[in-house]
Write a structure and sequence with these properties.
With 271 residues, this protein is α/β, with parallel strands linked by helices. The protein is 32% helix and 13% strand. Helix 2 packs parallel to helix 3.
Length: 271
Amino acid sequence: VHPICLFSMQNAERLAKEHPPAPLPYLDHLTLSDYDTVYEPSDDTYLLLDALSIDFSLTNSKNDNNINITTQSPPPLPVHTTLEIGCGTGVATIFLAKTLREQQQQRERTTSTPPPQDPKPATKKTNVNPLHYVTDINPNAIRTTLRTAEANHLPRHALEAVRCDLASPLLPRLSRAIDVVIFNPPYVPTPDDEVGGCGIGASWAGGTDGRVVIDRALPQIVSLLRPKGGRAYVVTVDDNRPREIVRWLEEDMGVSVVPFVRRRARNEFLT
């Protein structure tokens, strides 16, 4: 069971309201024509970045009343390997990579010089240089993510981009090895015959109840997560029947699930 704290939907809404918005990675290298073929960051993207920011923040944030905002969950374990399924522009992975890099730099500053009153040298800690996998069925998304990584100074060796359906070709190699999985699925309810393809429509068309792709992806995600401490961040809309998803994951797959952050976006609620 993956140890994630339990939040109610009301707490998830409160957390989303109180935490400052996460900064979007640099995207000025993209133009309007790029968004004709690749999903443009939108409300669901911003909610996903906020969730990552809250869980991986360097320090606890404070709201307008100067009250500490905390997730009440243990901090994520050292992250060695991440995977984003359906990367689009790549902003979620790039945001997480930059956050982890800032954490590493902060640790190095903290441990490099011992306090004046302490004659003992600081203990040297092993650096963690995570490897970030991204997948997408859309070849334009793969190319765009690589450009976004370069524009945000993510070393090329830190990113492995794979054009594929969900994470299918990675399953044998990365089984139970991923620390963080990110998945902003195609959750919009549509006719089932609209699901699939390799174009931009694959980023939103979710079939019946918006669940066709989600239901295929969740068993893969569970099989990829590291058993102790692995975390997945998955976006849903209320039309997806998220409570049913929670029961399925907890009762059939033994995974703890939390509605972490939740926000109204136009005429729908995203969680």
